[in-house]
Write a structure and sequence with these properties.
By secondary structure, the protein is mainly α. It has one domain. Helices cover 67% and strands 2% of the residues. It has a two-stranded antiparallel sheet. The longest helix has 24 residues. The protein is globular.
Length: 245
């Protein structure tokens, strides 16, 4: 039953994240369609690979296959950001409230705690990822609300929340990597490790949701850097204004 509920929740999270971000990009309609279709194609591919057992432990020896998908999407996004200005400007054009707000969905980290309680996921990964996501998601509510009101948002407040949210994801990825069963570098050997994270719907966390949320944190960090003031971020500023700041 937990898997069914999580499948519905993860699917809704992925769809809502893409819909919100793409719809609010200041780009032509054709570009929005391409972006949405690309994201959908990636998710469908991940689901198909998981269904065929392509993420099962030991398939590639010591390398957990979800790590490859995570790295491909995360590094690919970073390269696109650095090398393709339209991609970068499209992300920077998304309202700050939306970039922050979609992180509210990360309260879904409660599923990791439920898996831990059910004995299907081990510590320290499950408690760290679960509570870290819940805290990030709850804290995103007031931060996004301030941004949505178009009031001046204290840069330190946003930077602190953004750093915590990004660090939570990076720590979770690291702990998952060090808890992977069947690998010589596994450090946390108690319990089942992260086997469940290689199956549907859980594998969507590493192969889509985590890289996407990291991208939002990266974009927010860029907006902080490009902001005219070192202390205040103005939610209504445009990419052109940030570049000339």
């Amino acid at each position: 039953m937990l898997d069914v509920i999580a499948a519905t929740a993860f699917g809704a999270m992925a769809a809502a994240d893409v819909l919100i971000l793409v719809s609010l990009m200041v780009v032509p309609l054709k570009a929005k369609i391409v972006a949405a279709a690309t994201a959908a194609a990636w998710v469908v591919t991940m689901v198909a690979i998981a269904a065929l057992g392509g993420f099962r432990p030991g398939l590639l020896g010591p390398i957990p296959t979800p790590v490859l998908a995570f790295t491909a999407l995360a590094v690919g996004s970073l390269i696109a950001w650095l090398a393709w200005r339209p991609f970068r400007d499209a992300l920077l054009s998304i309202p700050l409230a939306a970039l922050i707000g979609i992180n509210v969905f990360r309260v879904g980290g409660v599923f990791f705690l439920l898996l831990f309680a059910d004995g299907r996921l081990s510590a320290p990964f499950a408690p760290s990822a679960g509570w870290g996501d819940i805290i990030t998601g709850l804290a995103a509510i007031p931060v996004a609300a301030i941004a949505a009101s178009r009031q001046a948002l204290p840069g330190r407040v946003l930077a602190t929340w953004n750093a915590f949210g990004a660090l939570d994801l990076l720590v979770a990825v690291t702990l998952a990597f060090l808890s992977a069963p069947g690998t010589s570098y596994r450090v946390f050997t108690q319990g089942p490790g992260t086997v469940v994270m290689t199956t549907m719907p859980w594998v969507l966390a590493a192969t889509f949701l985590v890289p996407l949320y990291l991208l939002t944190h990266f974009t927010i960090a860029a907006r902080l850097r490009l902001s005219r003031s070192a202390n205040v971020v103005r939610p209504g500023a445009t990419p052109a204004q940030w570049r000339t700041a």
